[in-house]
Amino acid sequence: MGRSGETLRQDEWRDELLKCGIRGKKKQHIHFSRVETLSGTRWLHADAETRDDTRQRVVVSFGPEHAPLEQRQVEQALEEAQLLKPKPKMVVFASFQFDPEAAKDIDEANWPSITLLKVQMNTDLLTDDLKKKRPSNESFWMIGQPDVQVRKVKDGDDKGKYRVEVCGIDYYNPIDGKTESGDTSKIAMWMLDTDYDGRSLYPRQVFFPMAGAKDGRSRLAKNLKAEIDEDLIEAYRGAVSLPFTPGDHKRVAVKIIDDRGIESLKIVEVSG
Q1: Are residues 168 and 76 in the same domain?
Q2: Number of domains forming the structure of the chain
Q3: I need a labelling partner for 155 at 20 to 30 A (CA). Which of 35, 50, 122, 250 fits?
Q4: Looking at 142, 170, 193, which one is the last position of a domain?
Q5: What pLDDT is recorded for position 3?
Q6: Is the domain of 87 the same as that of 216?
Q7: Taking a C-beta distance cutoff of 8 angstroms, is the pair 236, 189 a contact?
Q8: Do both 165 and 176 map to the same domain?
Q9: Looking at the structure, do residues 195 and 243 belong to the same domain, yes or no?
């Protein structure tokens, strides 16, 4: 049952979800008037109702304690959600980790009038002692979706190669139910796999947009001087990748870590 997310801690997680809700961007929250066990389902673990004027029904699928939430769980949970009456207005996948393909399926699912959300669970929820000592309860964080563009270089020495640009992170706004575009100012690090195999992400380029002149690679460049190209170090602080030739799988994967430490992933097909 571990892969389905079943765990003895789910009662605690439901209680915590009712207590603190889901934290979004700019201190936005989704609060609940009730969070209960959902009977008759294996992959959906909670039935909830939002604490606002709309009183929307929300169902929650929790990931496993010590493994990523996988693609099969997403498929099965959505199948169960489609059979529910009344239909939920929101399906929340809450987990400590997300398998890349599972995250992709959640982001790209086309279900009119239904909102699908990925939510990062705080690892404090695995440790009772830490949980009790926390001064504030922000155990569930909404995960944004990276806004990524892949472009072919049309001229110059790198003609025919590709570049990836990270434009920002899009977030669901629980107040109006719309998606808001964000910029790159809150991106602490992003990684690029130029030949994503559909199973595991292998970072071939790593960038630190928020790094200052005295941080990380910049400090290393200064200390080693001639051993490191300072222009190259500067390039790794940006939002545009170095030119690359796509691998055999013709897919790139971009993992972004924001200033809260929340990870999000975008997978893009590369043509040509």
Answers
A1: no
A2: 2
A3: 250
A4: 142
A5: 45
A6: no
A7: no
A8: yes
A9: yes
pLDDT band at 226; cut points 50, 70, 90: low
Same structural domain, 134 and 152? no
* DSSP-derived 3-state class of residue 200: coil
What domain range includes position 251?
A: 145-269
* pLDDT, average across residues 199-224: 71
Q: State whether 106 and 203 are in the same domain.
A: no
Q: Do you know the residue count of the chain?
A: 272
Give just the sign of the alpha carbon dihedral 130, 131, 135, 136.
Answer: positive
What phi, psi does 138 have (nearest 5°)? -130, 80
β-strands 187-193, 178-181 pairing:
unpaired
Q: At what angle do helices 71-83 and 100-108 cross, to 10 degrees?
A: 30
Contact 77, 56 (CB under 8 A): no
Residue type, 53: D
What is the 3 state secondary structure string of 155-182?
A: CCCCCCCEEEEEEEEEEEECCCCEEEEC
Helices (H), the chain: 10-20, 71-83, 100-108, 128-133, 216-224, 230-235
Residue for token pair 């003895």: 8
